[in-house]
What does this fold into?
Amino acid sequence: MLNINNLHAELEEDSEVKILKGFSLTINPGEVHAIMGPNGSGKSTLSYVLSGRDGYAVTEGGATLEGVDLLEMEPEERAASGLFLAFQYPVEIPGVGNMTFLRTAVNAQRKARGEAELSAGEFLKVVRAKANELQIDADMLKRPVNVGFSGGEKKRNEILQMAMLEPKMCILDETDSGLDVDAMKLVSDGVNALRDAGRSFLVITHYQRLLNHIKPDFVHIMSDGRIIKSGGPELALEVEENGYTDLLAEAAA
Amino acid sequence: MIPRAKLVQQKRDAAVTWLDGRALPEGGVWATKARKAAEDRLRDMGMPSKRDEYWRYTDPRRLTESTVQPAVLHDTGDALPLFDRVDRVKLVFVDGVFDAEASDAPELAGAEISQLRDAARSDLHWARDIYGVLEARGQTPISRPLASLNTAFATNGVLIRVAGKAPRPLALIYRRSQDTADALMHHVIRLDAGAELTLLEDGPVAARYNQVTEIDLGEGAVLNHIRAQGRDHERVGATHLFARLGAKAQLKSFTLSANGALTRNEAVIWLDGSDGTAHIAGACVGDGAFHHDDTVFVNHAAPRCESRQVYKKVLRHGAVGVFQGKILVDQIAQLTDGYQISQSLLLNEDAQFLAKPELEIYADDVKCSHGSTSGEIDANQFFYLRARGVPEAQARMLLVLAFLAEALDEIDDHALAAELRDHLEAWLNRRT
It folds into this structure.
């Protein structure tokens, strides 16, 4: 599904700041991978480089989604090919209704893939059902995108977008940040409902607790722009118990 | 630096030059009196000059010179006319001249509608208490000579007096024909106590135009005014809206402008009675050789009134936007609630926004705020939309419309607001 090979990236405006330094990872269809790591290890940058945000220059290596070069594509083309990034900080867009936003996004992707656009009626039916599962009420759908939403509402809104867009490869960037226990359960249930054999997940998190809800197949520890250790779910428990210090020392040795 | 006396003389000379060879239109007693007084005001004030502080950001030359530079009409063959789906009484003007054949019968229950050119011939008319009267009042504290010129020489326009609640909107539709047409148009709108009217205007009046609208709202009267100035790249125009509000009266005025080489829209509003409400808003989209100036003066002259000014401008490729807005709160006007916001979205680095917000407050128990910002498309919002699969051009469009939405939200009638929004979107789409 997603193949990242020896990826190197730096800040566009300051080539001295190198963030990804040889990051490699292969995610097969249906797999859930978690990336953990201390602050500044490059986790969020990885999600931005993969989704096509401006400001980063890839200097070496590459990434493909189902064999297609991801880095050559515009952000919207990556999205239409099935990549989805759930933002750590979902963006507020005053003046654009949440429903308009969702419908525009869904239909833009369908159009890009040569599929027929959903009619207003069809769309409404689907969105209501999915919003209901995430306890997103009609008012949240009507309001401008993320404006005045609580932290939990913003994250639920991200998952609603994911559910509507039905991507193949989902990257969740610190989806647990700013969530209380109940909100985390709700968001995790939303994610788990989307798990299937054809869909893969890359879950970026600081804490193991999210992984109690979204159970990963593989856990990777990231430090200084690359993966320093990979393992199963037990690796996340080890981090929870002992912190990163030992792992980092081990890698440095 | 030119000495002030010399500048005044130059301005007066410019007025004399313009007046040379022009005689005031023939008319009845009231109109002749108003026109003569206006001509005297014009001779005294002289023509506006770019050296005037009040015209600092907008060069008035093309509005004041004796000859009109030709303005080729933009082909709007693909554009649907606005307000066509609205059940309204339509009055059509071509190059500022009333076209009876293209118009509906000027009949609206509870309203008296006459053409200025006819009414000006009679010796007595209700409009004599308003025509040129509000314009003259608007000459202080700052002179507006183009409006006096208009009062003196305009022969076209409508005089509308409404006694009750007008059952349908009145639509003034402007069409252009000649590339060098120079139109002076002067409307007078009087709403008696408790009367209500929705006034719609659409289209560029002429290649060059000077339009004055005097509005007199009686106690509790409600006027909704929605104006679209057409999508016409080369025309130049100056408009003045003078409005006097009685107690509990409401004025809501919205103007949409897209392109046009030069536009100066002035609004002068007096809240003369307590508990009045005046909301004035504008959205404009300018591209290339475009200069758009909104100059607004709101005077709170009575207690407990509310005023709002909401102006949004989207500018690109060298387009220039100007906002000069002032709220003046008299000492008597306690518990005033005044609000003013002017914002621009600059789509290129060479677009320009010039803003001069002013508050002048003499009462001590008031709530007044103003703000002005200028910025580009928000990179985070832009990326967020694209990361969800919205193509670049569409994402930009959504954000431009979102930016303008706050001004469009000032329109109470949702159907009309939606129609304007659709128009804007179509305009923007055709440009990209």
Summary: The longest helix of chain B spans residues 414-431. The CA atoms of residues 174 and 205 of chain B lie 5 Å apart. The first strand of chain B starts at residue 89 and ends at 94. Chain B has one domain: 4-376.
